[in-house]
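Handout, section B. The chain below has 371 residues.
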Amino acid sequence: MARPFNFSAGPAALPLEVLEQAAAEMLDWHGSGVSVMEMSHRGSDFMSICDQAERDLRELLAVPAAFRILFMQGGGLGQNAIVPMNLIGHSASHTADFVLTGSWSIKSQAEAQRYGEAHVAARIDSARPVRLPPPSTWQLSTRPSYVHLCSNETIDGIEFQDLPDLHSLGCDAPLVIDCSSHIASRTIDWRRVGVAYAGAQKNIGPAGLTLVIVREDLLGHALAICPSVFDYRTVADQGSMFNTPPTYAIYIAGLTFQWLKRQTEEGLTGLAAIEARNIAKAKLLYDCIDSSSLYRNEVDPSCRSRMNVPFFLANDSLTESFLSQAKEAGLLQLRGHKSVGGLRASLYNAMPIEGVQALVRHMHAFEAKHA
C-alpha cells in the first residue's frame, strides 16, 4: 500500500521500518509471549529494552559520560515547570534568563515566573525577515541560575545553527535548551550545554516520552516544592524507574535510535548521514519558496529551521485550495499553526527526500495555475 507523505509537526511520521518492526513484534516480543505494552517495567525484558535505548541514544548524540539520560513524562510544556523547579535554586539569585525567539520560548519564560525571577535577556523583534538576536547583544542578569533557549521553534520555523558560548559572554551559568523539534537531527555541542530536553513525539517516537539529558553536577538542586517524580536527582538515581515510565514509547524510541544508526548518506553513517539528508531536504524546499512569486518564508536564511518550514501564499484566499489539492496528491498535515496561519511543512528525520520532492512538484503545479 502506498502511504501518503505526512508533514505533521507532531505527533509526526515515524520511519516505516520502525512501524513494521513494531507491528511484527506487537503480540510477541522476541519469543517472550507478550507485547512490550504488557511487560513489567522492572522485568528483565523491558529493562533490556530501556538500557539498550539509553546506550544507543548516548552513542548517536555523543553524550559525554558526565551527563545523565532520563526518560520522563510531561512533554516540553511539563519541562517548562520541571526545569525551574530543578535549577532555579542552583544560584542564590533564583533567577533564570530567557532568550525569546518564538512561541515555545515565550511559554517557557511565562511558566518559570511561577518559581522565581524569569529575566528576558533578549527577544526577536517584529522586523521581517526574522533574525535571531546576536548573543553579543543579550542582556544577561548577574549570576543567573541558568540561561534558557528553544534551539528550534516549531511554530515559527527558527533554528539556532550554533549554540551560544556563554563563557565567552562572561556567564558561567548552564545553558538549557528545548530541542524538542530537532533532537537527533543534528549534532549537539555538549561543551556549551547543561541540560537538553525534548518531547519525543516529533523526531523520535510517539507522544508520552520526554527525554532529559542533564549534566551530573546540575542534579540535586531541586526546590522543596518539586514533586519527587520530577526531581532530576531522584529520576537519575532510580534509572528512570522511580515511577512507571512510558514503556511502549521508550520501546519505539529505541527502535528509532537503531534505525538512525543504520542510516547512510554519501559515505556518512548515523547522525551525520541524517544531518546531511536533512540539509538537502530543507534546501530543496527553501529553494522552491525563494524562487517563487507566490510563496514566501519570513525567516532570515541564517536561522531558518531545517525541520519546520512555515510559508505563506501571496494570496491567502488560495490557502484552502492549496491544502485540499495537496491532500488529493497524498501530501498531509500542511496547515500552519493556528496562531500564525499559512502553511507549514515539517521535514523530520522520517520524511524521505521523495516526500519533499513531491511537495515541491505540487507547489510548482499550483503556482503555474495561479500565477
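Note. The first strand starts at residue 5 and ends at 6. Compare this with the example in section A.
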